[in-house]
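Below is how a single chain appears once it has passed through the pipeline. First comes the sequence as given, then the structure the pipeline wrote out for it. We keep one example in the README because the format questions we get most often are answered faster by looking than by reading.
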Amino acid sequence: MNEQKLKTIFAEALDTAENMIQDDLAYNSIEQWDSIAHMTLIAAIDEGFDIMMDTDDVIDLSSYAKAKEILGKYGVAF
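Resulting structure:
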């Protein structure tokens, strides 16, 4: 359930198809994931999972797989 929710958030924030969202999807690996989209993505993840990522995690969030790892620190299970 959380996996699907995160995929949807990524797809909407990055304006791309959900089937493009895989563990190896990384920052700047697709044209849509630039610095502006990154902040949109962070805001959407924070809102979607009712958390507030700290600055280190925002900077550290460099891939879809890393997003799942970071969310785990906030009690979100995958």
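Residues 54 and 60 are 10 Å apart (CA to CA).

See the next section for the split statistics.
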